[in-house]
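Let us work through a complete example step by step.
Step 1: write down the sequence.
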Amino acid sequence: MHISRKKPAYPLTPALRQYLRDYDRDAPLPVSYADLRRYSNSFPLRDRTGRDTLWQTVYYEPQAMHELSEGLAEVYALLKMGGDLSFTEHLVADRIDFCHFGNSQPFRIRILNQLNDNYDFFYVKQADASRIYGLELEHVLSPNSMNFLVDGTNTLIEEHIAGIPGDDFIRLRLSQPHLNQVRIAKEFVKFNERCFARLLGDMRAYNYVIDVTPDFEDEQYRVRAIDFDQQSYEGNQRMYQPRYFADNAAVVDLCARLLKPENVRQYQTEERTLMARRARTERHRLRALLDVMRAHDLAPPEKVAELKAALNHHHRTQKFDHCDSMGDLVRQNLWLMLGPRTLSTVMP
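Step 2: predict the structure and record it as tokens.
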């Protein structure tokens, strides 16, 4: 499968900006993405084992770093504390990392609480409409709340999503004897279903994390997407089904070995039912989002046509023929997968 590594960043339309204001995602920020690009030096950041993380720790002139630290503490307060600045006097940005890899080229900010040496992360990115639609669809339709802000300088602030990177989990933990492999297989089936229903692409192993929660007898797992740049952009239908990516092969083999076809169908139905319930609960928000998305040009016409034909073939229908945009395709795919009765108030 070929992935468009150079996917363009799509600008935010006035309608999308109004949607973000309506749902409290818009805020003036004291630091912009462009401000962070003015670093003076950098060096590779390595993990505890000495492996290159593909991130660069960046440095600024002392006065610039002081001003950035104050501004980034305020950004953190806007993101996490509703803008309450009374706590920022003991918060400092003690490390800033930059990643050249991927489309969004993010900065990762480590915020340190000087009272107890505890730290947290958030990300500063260039605002891309594709990514924002992906974040919003994740927030509305998945079990995961997404916390982010956008401002008028086209700067996107995202909360850190905690978890074990998928590629590390597969490489280091998947074969461990204590791991409940059936639960991992079940969650991957449900994750695959969520991605395909809302057409989130490029879920290779390093684009999601595994959230592990100890339970009273065992562990529970949840697969969470962390990269939303490829929300409904590619024309190849398989891009939206994580099971087709080679670096997920070990988990796919696990599913094939441990789950019977009736198990797979059960877990797919469970996930569709949960998504449909969320869609009903957030029907006004979802309808507003899809209305904006349908009018937004988010992919070349040839990709829209390719995906339209593929989805018609997959669902054995011609209902995608009337779709003219990626937003139309997402809407129709949700309609077919989650059920017309459930979504009739969202998509009359």
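Step 3: interpret the result. The chain has two domains: 14-126+148-159, 164-343.
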